[in-house]
């Protein structure tokens, strides 16, 4: 799995070149606008809610002594909660909304690398089906991810070992980000449940792609704009390699015949 994680991250270094080579940037205009508007909305909403959550947490402290310290800590905790939840909601909402735009881009990359495409997803009916699948998958992932993160977040306040749980929270967020990106390719190959099984068997690829997604997303403003193009291209390449290992050599280069 470590090798798969490394390959998932490494794919980002060639994603920019592939984006330019295939002239794919133009297909990301609408998704980038959606990403920017959604990101700004969540940032301002999170900023407004952090103090409210912090004040609520502080109100639980029923003593006058140490009130100021507790309030300061509560606001910090409130900010962390809002940040974590905000990223989760942003990630899954964005992936679901832009799914009709991402699938055709994934097809173009597959056509370039393999010379063929498993299944076309053009047309209103196909794109509607893609959107419905994207909403279903990302809603499912959103619920599962939150159920994992809540206990880990609580455990993260344990002295000394708490940092381990923060790291696990990051990996969980990365896994489900990569999961969503992989499905833009997998939807042409597998039905819904089979795709989930495939990602579970190749979770290293999902984590590697998601690590890149999360790190880019943390770049102020710019990250919101470039996270989709880079992560989707990188994910498509690594997913195709997992689906067609016989068509790539040991250095992950396409085998020409």
Describe the protein in words.
It comes from Kordia antarctica. Keywords: Amino-acid biosynthesis, Cell inner membrane, Cell membrane, Membrane, Sulfate transport, Transmembrane, Transmembrane helix, Transport. GO terms for molecular function: high-affinity sulfate:proton symporter activity. Pfam families: EI24 (PF07264). This is Sulfate transporter CysZ. The chain is an all-alpha fold and 257 residues long. It has one domain (2-247). The protein contains 9 helices and no strands. Helix 7 (192-201) crosses helix 8. The mean pLDDT is 84.
Q: Secondary-structure blueprint of this entry?
A:
Layout: H1 2-21, H2 29-59, H3 67-97, H4 99-114, H5 124-155, H6 162-186, H7 192-201, H8 203-217, H9 222-243
Helix pairs in contact: 1-8, 1-9, 2-3, 2-9, 3-5, 3-6, 4-5, 4-9, 5-6, 6-8, 6-9, 7-8, 8-9
Subcellular location: Membrane
Protein name: Sulfate transporter CysZ
Pfam families: EI24 (PF07264)
Radius of gyration over alpha carbons?
A: 20 Å
- N to C succession of SSEs: HHHHHHHHH
- Main sheet: strands, sense, barrel: none
Count of the domains = 1
Q: Kindly estimate the percentage of residues that lie in beta strands according to DSSP.
A: under 5%
Content-based structural category: mainly alpha
Number of helices: 9
Overall strand count? 0
Low-confidence stretches: none
Rounded mean pLDDT is 84
Q: Helix fraction? A: over 70%
Described by the principal axes of the CA atoms, the overall outline is elongated
Terminal Cα span: 30 Å
């Amino acid at each position: 799995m470590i090798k798969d994680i490394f390959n998932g991250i490494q794919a980002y270094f060639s994603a920019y070149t592939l984006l330019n080579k295939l002239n794919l940037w133009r297909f990301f205009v609408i998704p980038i606008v959606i990403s920017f508007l959604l990101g700004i909305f969540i940032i301002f909403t999170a900023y407004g809610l952090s103090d409210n959550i912090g004040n609520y947490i502080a109100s639980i402290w029923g003593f006058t002594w140490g009130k100021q310290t507790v309030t300061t800590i509560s606001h910090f905790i409130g900010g962390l909660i809002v940040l974590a939840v905000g990223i989760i909601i942003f990630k899954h909402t964005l992936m679901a909304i832009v799914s009709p735009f991402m699938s055709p881009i994934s097809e173009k990359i597959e056509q370039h690398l393999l010379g063929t495409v498993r299944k076309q997803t053009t047309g209103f009916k196909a794109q509607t089906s893609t959107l419905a699948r994207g909403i279903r998958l990302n809603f499912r992932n959103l619920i599962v991810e939150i159920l994992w993160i809540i206990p880990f977040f609580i455990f993260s306040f344990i002295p000394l070992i708490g940092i381990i749980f923060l790291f696990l929270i990051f990996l969980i967020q990365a896994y489900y980000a990569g999961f969503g990106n992989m499905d833009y390719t997998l939807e042409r190959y597998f039905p819904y449940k089979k795709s989930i099984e495939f990602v579970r068997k190749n979770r290293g690829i999902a984590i590697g792609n998601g690590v890149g997604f999360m790190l880019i997303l943390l770049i102020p403003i710019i990250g919101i704009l470039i996270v989709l193009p880079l992560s989707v291209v990188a994910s498509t390449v690594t997913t195709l390699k997992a689906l067609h290992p016989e068509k790539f050599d040991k250095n992950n280069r396409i085998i020409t015949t």
